[in-house]
């Protein structure tokens, strides 16, 4: 297999060796190159023998370089290969609950182990074979993020709509035994994988030993577009509380006997159960914050830090900002901002809970609010001088909501400037004071996945 080279970086080692766009990369040091993992892994050596073809004719170049230094080749896509899609038909899949007519990319189901390592995406292990597991072990690709949901093979087949889903659990054991660290995820569905089934799953996770880094448990999200799908029910205050008690009991055991909590309920469980979010130390080093575990507590800590340590100016004159949020996080966020209100007397801060009519069902998180719902529910209100919007409402790196309404369009129709705010406490405090955004890392083009929202 050969991979077509589409570009060569100026001044790079590849350019100095005469490698050209249009050449095809065949192998490095005798190892065939099929995708980005092969390329990144085998180019790290100090001495390289690079095999190519040019217009069908074989070509070979040799070089010495510092270890880990790049050759400087560019390819059609980041993966140098097609992105692997999901082969499952999970009963809880969020993509199957989307309305028709949204942009095509939202309906793609990602299940690519390469993106798990490169960008933290979650995979199910159902579309890779023993050869791919061998490659992961050889390259020491770690950690790997896995959507497990249950360790009961038969139940996993049922939940994931795939008769091979149970057998693929053997990959989990091979990875753990081979020294690969695992972050695992459970989408918890009442009546399916909770209760005794969850107890069984956590017992099997315990048996994975040191290979298991963390487990995040999130409640199933149900939209109003479930006609013809498996009859799932949402969590109630009572059932969410029962799940919390079981998960915290196992987390306490891990902490007591192995020194780290390891098992974490997502913030949504605490909101659903009407319980306080645990203190900062509960989340240790926040191993699953991208999965909504400890995100609210971390935000509180960042806001408190910003109020104490930032040189915030005195504001003159009366003004007001409006902050829309999902219904689930509204009580926590409104209380969190009391510190800002006490310190910023001249600026009124109104937090507005926005009902997600677009998706409906039990969807109440901020990141899935749409431009249309914001327009309908904010229109006609006194929004003050500015509307502050969490950046996770919009497409990564773009000012566009899930329903393709733009930030500019929202500002125009509401008649008030709308500002995109980074997902940190410092960014939020700065925005309330009218200060510029802090410097933040670049956007991850693959961040987030429908499955665990």
Question: What does the model show?
Answer:
This protein has 15 helices and 14 strands. With 453 residues, it is an alpha/beta fold. Strands 1, 2, 3, 4, 5 and 6 form a 6-stranded antiparallel sheet that branches. A 4-stranded parallel sheet has the order 7-8-9-10. Strand 13, helix 14 and strand 14 form a beta-alpha-beta unit. The protein is globular and about 70 Å long. The relative contact order is 0.09.
Share in β-strands: 15-25%
How would a crystallographer describe the biggest sheet?
Answer: 6 strands, antiparallel
Radius of gyration: 24 Å
Helix content: 25-40%
Apparent shape: globular
Class inferred from helices and paired strands = alpha/beta
Residue stretches low in confidence (pLDDT < 50, at least 5 long) are 441-453
